[in-house]
Design a protein that fits this description.
The chain is mainly alpha-helical and 241 residues long. It is built from ten helices and no strands. Helix 2 runs antiparallel to helix 3 and helix 5 packs antiparallel against helix 6. The protein is globular and about 60 Å long.
Length: 241
């Protein structure tokens, strides 16, 4: 029996919504952004529109990555994957279906983020909100969510416990870039600084809500995404269920 990508995607997106995971994730993204918007509008702080997007991405990107990863972990931990992945084609379709779910989740967070920025800008939050920034924001969210989702996926396929995977992703999205910023500021080696600045684990969390990436960073990001996708496909074909 051939695994139906469309049915799987539709069923699991509905499940994420019905169980409240998507709602909780979006709320986790919106609450910090709305709080900082309030402080900006009341004159408590001199932040601007990019700070709103940064606060939106702070927890929002972690939630967006964990939504589709939860489904993969659920299927493997409950042995449902052994029923689905009973042929080479079905294993490939299963990977594609979960990537499609991650894509839809990323688009949801892009849409909510753009609406948030347009509304807060209309309410009086200062700062330029140009089309180039919104396009960069959209591309950054899309690439970040898919990249870190696939990273978590490959870790699960290699047998890393789900708790450890969630810890690694949380550390990378919320804390690692702060450590790397300190390294950049403390070193005088341009080569090392360049390596760090073009490392996806650094530039995605730092730049996702701030600015479009550089052409080199987009190239590295796309290349990394393709490599991770191929690794997941290859490992999925070989893993014993």
């Amino acid at each position: 029996m051939i695994f139906n990508i469309k049915n799987y995607v539709s069923y699991n997106l509905k499940e994420l919504f019905k169980k409240g995971y998507l709602v909780l994730g979006v709320l986790a993204a919106l609450v910090p952004a709305l709080i900082i918007s309030y402080f900006i509008l009341t004159g408590t702080t001199s932040f601007n529109i990019k700070h709103v997007s940064n606060f939106y991405c702070m927890l929002g990107m972690l939630a967006a990555v964990l939504h589709p990863l939860y489904l993969v972990n659920r299927d493997y931990s409950s042995k449902t994957a052994s029923l689905i992945n009973n042929s080479k084609q079905n294993r490939k379709n299963y990977v594609l279906a979960n990537v499609v779910i991650a894509l839809f989740v990323s688009l949801l967070y892009v849409a909510v983020g753009i609406v948030l920025l347009l509304v807060t800008k209309q309410l009086g939050v200062p700062g330029k909100l140009e089309v180039s920034f919104l396009l960069g924001f959209s591309a950054n969210v899309f690439l970040l969510v898919l990249t870190f989702f696939l990273l978590g996926y490959i870790l699960l396929l290699f047998g890393v416990r789900s708790g450890a995977v969630y810890f690694i992703l949380t550390a990378m999205l919320l804390f690692l870039h702060n450590i790397l910023i300190n390294v950049i500021e403390s070193t005088q080696r341009e080569f090392l600084s360049g390596l760090i600045e073009n490392f996806p684990g650094y530039f995605y969390p730092v730049m996702v809500g701030s600015n479009p990436l550089s052409p080199l960073q987009y190239f590295i990001g796309c290349f990394t995404l393709i490599v991770l996708f191929l690794l997941v496909l290859k490992k999925s074909e070989k893993i014993e269920i």
